[in-house]
Design brief:
By secondary structure, this protein is mostly helical. It contains five helices and three strands. Helix content is about 50%, strand content about 10%.
């Protein structure tokens, strides 16, 4: 197909652009990564509950220790009286991630959102099913570094996901796999690029 002299082959209006190529694999990556992260978090927490019941286990001297603790709040044990608020926020986050996943066609976004869902889901499970009562449960934490709050695999997942989301955003890649530069129209004929 040939365009008229000086006319662009690209649509000039982003709304006229063809939809991004769908990659069914992105949704499979999302689901697989989310399930893997969730299972890894729950599995390590169950292991910590049994293996660390008798006390700490130094792994790298004082630099990295396995230390079992139960956190009713957020990072640095903030908001310990607002456990139900964190439970509600985690439920909203799960719904938002699932809603966004409907538009996934980017493997990078699939990884980021899958890891995020697995991490948020892992801590949400603790808040729903662990003592002292449903929806007020304390999160199992067991990874301890010096001068840092004790954390778990779900917390690692949430932070890695945040980094991947920032990376995808800086790269200009949308959930559907399009790039910001793809949506920009070509300069008009006769204008300088």
């Amino acid at each position: 197909m040939q365009a008229a002299r000086g006319a662009s082959l690209k649509p000039s209006d982003p709304a006229d652009a063809p939809p991004a190529r769908r990659r069914p694999g992105a949704r499979l990556v999302f689901a697989g990564v989310a399930l893997l992260a969730y299972a890894l978090d729950l599995g390590t927490k169950q292991w910590a509950l049994s293996a660390l019941a008798d006390g700490d286990v130094p792994v790298l001297g004082d630099w990295f220790t396995l230390h079992l603790t139960f956190n009713p709040g957020a990072a640095f044990s903030t908001g310990t009286d607002f456990t139900i608020v964190f439970t509600c926020l985690a439920m909203v986050a799960v719904v938002v991630v699932l809603w966004l996943s409907r538009r996934l066609a980017s493997t990078g976004w699939a990884l980021a959102l899958g890891i995020l869902l697995g991490g948020v889901g892992g801590n949400l499970t603790d808040r729903i099913v662990r003592p002292p009562e449903p929806f007020h449960g304390h999160v199992v934490d067991f990874l301890m570094l010096p001068s840092w709050p004790v954390f778990n695999v779900a917390d690692v997942c949430i932070n890695v996901a945040a980094g991947l989301i920032i990376l995808q955003t800086f790269r200009g890649i949308a959930l559907d796999g399009t790039r910001e530069s793809d949506a920009e129209p070509d300069p008009q004929p006769g204008s300088r690029a």
